[in-house]
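wait is this the right file?? whatever heres the structure
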């Protein structure tokens, strides 16, 4: 019997989709329903995040172009899986929901993970604890591996604007984020609620697009 998947514009739900849908539904509709990729956010800070991801992959190489970034990354504890997508299909009474996420680092044995943030805006324990993305990854790990994580880490690499572009200041801080099963279950409830709202809106959008005039 074929799986009944919750019908979403991309076929799956991600943390960024949940954030956008719940903060700016009109923009979500334009990007995901109407394929308005020009409305996606892209800035120098996000581009620098890609530099950090590359530095993680090349940490043992000696010919690193950005030595400051390489040094900042070297200060962080390392897990063996880097920047790999986790994909799960969750069976619920509403149907199967495909969910994805990509932690910056994941331990293949313990399933502990770390998420790296960069930028000038200061992170704190309180801000890290409230960050939905951390609970999102804990939820994915729970659904896929049956593992209830009780903690994970958010690492902040402070950056500044220089004549050569965005560079790390040398300040690196790590914040422990704690979870409970209740946190994971409430995130699952939020994911399902968001998915159903999107599915209903998307069905209506498709019906209007295909309506004969």
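ok assuming it is, sequence goes like this
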């Amino acid at each position: 019997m074929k799986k009944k998947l919750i019908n979403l514009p991309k076929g799956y739900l991600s943390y960024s989709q949940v954030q956008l849908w719940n903060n700016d539904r009109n923009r979500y509709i334009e990007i995901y329903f109407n394929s308005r990729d020009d409305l996606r956010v892209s800035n120098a800070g996000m581009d620098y995040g890609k530099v950090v991801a590359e530095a993680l992959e090349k940490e043992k190489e000696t010919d690193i172009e950005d030595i400051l970034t390489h040094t900042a990354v070297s200060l962080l504890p390392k897990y063996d899986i880097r920047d790999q997508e986790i994909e799960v299909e969750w069976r619920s009474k509403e149907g199967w929901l495909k969910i994805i996420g990509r932690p910056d680092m994941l331990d293949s044995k313990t399933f502990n993970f770390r998420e790296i943030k960069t930028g000038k805006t200061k992170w704190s324990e309180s801000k890290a604890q409230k960050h939905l993305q951390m609970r999102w990854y804990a939820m994915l790990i729970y659904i896929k591996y049956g593992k209830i994580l009780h903690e994970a880490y958010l690492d902040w690499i402070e950056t500044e604007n220089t004549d050569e572009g965005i560079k790390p200041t040398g300040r690196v801080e790590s914040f422990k984020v704690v979870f409970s099963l209740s946190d994971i279950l409430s995130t699952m409830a939020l994911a399902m609620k968001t998915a159903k709202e999107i599915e209903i809106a998307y069905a209506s959008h498709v019906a209007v697009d295909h309506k004969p005039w």
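The longest helix spans residues 181-209. so i think its the right one actually
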